[in-house]
Amino acid sequence: MVKVLISDKLSPLAKEIFEKRGIITDQITGLSADELLKIIPKYDGLAIRSATKVSPKLLAAATKLKVVGRAGIGVDNVNVKEATTRGVVVMNTPFGNSITTAEHAIAMMFSIARQIPSANASTHAGKWEKSRYMGVELTSKTLGIIGCGNIGSIVAERAIGLKMKVIAFDPFLTQDRADEIGVEKVALDDILERSDFISLHTPLTDTTRGILSTDAFNKMQPHVRIINCARGGLIDEEALKIALDEGKVAAAALDVYSVEPAKECILFGYDNVVVTPHLGASTNEAQVNVAVQVAEQMADFLLEGGVTNALNMPSLTSEESVRLNPYIELVKDLGTFAGQLCENTVQSIQIEFKGDVTELNLRPLTSIIVESLLSPIMDCVNMVNALSVAKEREIEVIESKNEAAGDYNSLITIKVTTKKGEHSVSGTLFADKKPRIVEVEGIRLEAELTKNMIFAVNNDQPGFIGSLGTILGDNNLNIATFNLGRHEEGGEALVLVAVDASASSDVIAYIKKLPQVKRVRALSF
User: Fold this and answer.
1) 3-class DSSP state of 515
2) Nearest to residue 113, comparing CAs of 343, 290, 274, 228?
3) What 3-state DSSP class applies to 348?
């Protein structure tokens, strides 16, 4: 018999769904790590929220476990890499609390527009400070949305209903989609310069971390109001504090923080800062939705093999999995690399498989490439839904194969077309089965990808390498490997440098100022 353990507090409907499908279900909450270790070997499935920690130790003990279902979006409490290694599917429910989170953002916007929390506290204290709490109307104000995906588009819809002018920045927002939801598609600087209110709805990635920085606040118009119900690290909290102190920001509403639980924060204590303890998904309806969804998804997988919202591997036969495994790391690297090269709206993704790899089941590899390419900028993308997300965003995905081997036994090439041009990257597996990048932007080179890298396109002129090395040395960035390529002497060249630590935005800015440099980016793998 199939058995599932619900180890966190979920709606009773989850247990009902499992049992109606014939799955034996135990709901035991509040278990210590040791208690959970003792009983987990009995279960085929584990349904959780955020309290249960699915660690490598727990996964090692879970000898029967086939699936972990997270009722909610975040899986910070699940070691997805270890789960994948052990063949355990990890699922989440990325859309179950979208409306709830969007409504919380709207509620927070009202709160700072009319200073409701402070006025409430004052009135409860027996004061009648009517003249102190002068608010602003939302009607006719401009709301700038950073990240117009599932939640952001709901916020936009609600704001338009309030007669607000809505502008949106999202690298993957197409013009047709913007027209459909009634927003004006703009650049990030337009959001900063034109908005009366700014609401954040983007995932936290290396690209979006600190997207509201000192530089961003300096570009905003006076008396702007900020709402963040997405991820804490999107805002530089020290920069926000300064902007509040200087009067640049009239008010802020925060549901998320750089460190959580946020028992202390430099923004606490401000009358014009409304704070809530990460309540975005905290409604009865949302809790029911995610519980029902996770139970249905897990039951489908355990009983029928169906996979929905999986975060690691799509369904494969054991034979296919063994043959595909060496290529999985390669295509993840290629997709991540290609995604970080793009600075504009993606229009199409062309994937070409050549040589021996064409004998394999290519569908999972294509899904992994698209997921890796889109996930640095988009929330809720995984290997299973990547192609449908791309289709929804009108991104054309073209897969082709050529059985002729060419220079390599197998070669995988990704070409990404954006509004401003095309980017390409190619890779292969060498005899040691380690991934290698063999061509970038049409220029040949050979490189292993490491955690922290710097990529630059430059004019092939004397002195560039020395100047680059000096900048890295002056900033205590040790070079691990240095890879070069060029079209021809004196023409366009590129450099891919592996460094021992992440390059800061200041370091990238210094490199960008070198006269030979045409383009430079810090990469993370």
Assistant:
1) coil
2) 274
3) strand
Which residues are CB-contacts of 271 (< 8 A; sequence separation ≥ 6)? 115, 118
With H, G, I as helix, E, B as strand and everything else as coil, classify residue 327: helix
Residue 32, both tokens: 């210590």
DSSP string, 175-211: HHHHHHHT-EE--HHHHHHH-SEEEE-----TTTTT-
278 has catalytic annotation: yes
Based on its alpha-carbon atoms, the radius of gyration of the chain, rounded to whole angstroms, reads 25
Helical residues (DSSP H) of 195-317, grouped into ranges: 214-219, 237-245, 284-304
What string of pLDDT tens digits covers the 525 residues of the chain?
Answer: 999 999 999 999 999 999 999 999 999 999 999 999 999 999 999 999 988 999 999 999 999 999 999 998 778 789 987 887 787 889 998 888 899 999 999 999 999 999 999 999 999 999 999 989 999 999 999 999 999 988 999 999 999 999 999 999 998 888 989 999 999 999 999 999 999 999 999 988 888 999 999 999 999 999 999 999 999 999 999 999 999 999 999 999 999 999 988 999 999 999 999 999 999 988 999 999 999 999 999 998 898 877 778 887 665 555 666 778 889 889 999 999 999 988 778 899 999 999 999 988 888 899 889 989 988 777 667 765 778 778 878 899 999 999 887 888 999 999 999 888 899 999 999 877 889 999 999 999 999 889 999 999 999 999 999 999 999 999 999 999 999 999 888 889 999 999 999 999 899 999 999 999 999 999 988
* From 278, 323, 486, 487, active-site residue: 278
Q: Set out the domains of the chain in order of their start, with CATH numbers.
A: 3-95+286-306 (3.40.50.720), 98-275 (3.40.50.720), 313-440 (3.30.1330.90), 449-525 (3.30.70.260)
Spatial separation of the C-alpha atoms in residues 438 and 512, rounded to whole Å: 24
Number of Cβ within 10 Å of residue 24's Cβ equals 14
Q: Is 49 a catalytic residue?
A: no
Residue 2 near residue 303 (C-beta atoms within 8 A)? yes
**What dihedral do alpha carbons 403, 406, 411, 413 form, nearest 10°?**
-100
- Residue 360, both tokens: 């394999």
Instruction: Give the number of other Cβ atoms within 10 Å of residue 377's Cβ.
Output: 21
Element housing 447 (H / E): strand 443-447
**Residue from 260, 285, 320, 446 carrying the catalytic annotation:** 260
Query: Closest Cα to residue 417, out of 353, 346, 351?
Result: 346
What tokens were used for 505? 């935005």
* Nearest residue to 379 (alpha-carbon basis) of 479, 248, 234: 234
Question: 């999972």: which residue's tokens?
Answer: 364
pTM of the model: 0.68
